Amino acid sequence: MGSHGQINRVPYYNGVKLIGEGKTWTTPDGKTVPMKKIRWAAQCRFRDHDGRTRKVEAWGSSGAEAERRLRDDLTIRKRTSSDTITGDTRLEVLADYWLRTKIDPSGLAVNTRQRYRYTTEQYVVPGLGGLLLRECTVSRLEAWVAGEVEKHAANARISLTCLKGMLDVAVREDALTANPARSVTPVPATTSEEVRALAVPDVIALRTALATDEKATAIDLHDLVDVMLATGCRPGEALALRWDEVDLTRHVVYLTGTVVREKGVGLFRQDTTKGKKPRGHLVPEFAVRMLERRAAEASPGALNLVFPSERDGLREVTTVDRQWRTFRERHPEWTWITPKTFRKSVGTAVERGADIEAAAAQLGHSHSAVTAKHYVARPAVGPDHRTILERFGG
After folding, report:
1. Which residues contact 100 (CB under 8 A, 6 or more apart)?
2. What's the pTM value of the predicted model, to 2 decimals?
3. CA distance 322 to 95
4. Residues 71 and 174 grouped into a single domain
5. Which of 39, 60, 81 is the last residue of a domain?
6. Which of 221, 226, 324 is nearest to 281 (CA)?
7. Is residue 3 assigned to a domain?
8. pLDDT digit string (tens) for 13-43?
9. Mean pLDDT over all residues of the chain?
């Protein structure tokens, strides 16, 4: 079910099927018909979800156009007939069903949903889509995943996650008795690079460089960096900050959303952060002074943003990334720093001044292990325990 036969292109004139080839076509009585007056039909037979085979067709001003329209119609028709999953369903059909019914309407973050769709369509379907579900054995999946690991381990890891998700659906639909992807050897996490953060003197020097760079100040880059240094927020969260989430009296900034771009939707403010929970941060005096200055100078637009674009709309995270790279080109001493470095610097500073739990809370992490592994730089010299160890000296 959900498959079609050979597609044929057929020329017609006034409802009459023409005879000929190439650019020469005539009616059955021998009358030549100009190409511009011909209407084309693309036709084939399709097996519907009820098991019956039917003739389907689409029309166009050329054979190619008619076939394109027919293939589009077949895609829609195939989806309609694919909602019954069996062992003879192809993996590509299951993948489409999983994305449409499980991922798209889910409560996952926009970027997560887009990553699952991209990975499924660009890697899983081209690599395994032609297999029937009953052909998706552990050994076949194991071999494919191993091959993907050699190309790009991170893509292989997400691909395996997608396979597990879609084949779980096949199990629930009784198309499979067990999920073979769950027996595939897990893809090991890539070794994390050593966390590198800015020390206090470096932060002071960098803020001075930003404040004295006319091009950086013209695009508010210095103020944007100050918000990230004062809260540990992500760039998208800083760009989503609104004035009604800034309490200058209490010196509190509330992070309640982030800026994302979704295919087919465009750029918008997602009213949840990556961690799904809003966070309120008491901010230091340097950030309060900056926000007070901006509040005095600002004329809030329709979106009430603290860092609006030139047209008073949302700013792209990718635009800020590009602006930061341009700043680094003018100041090569900061080449190693990315916007994520500010978040790592905040995590490291709070861990040094308080503890790892405080750093995790500052960054909005549910577990401090993530903070320790990815956001806190290791000290060059360990803690001073000489008094304790001196006992060994007798």
Report:
1. 79
2. 0.65
3. 35
4. no
5. 81
6. 226
7. no
8. 988 999 998 888 999 998 999 998 999 999 9
9. 89
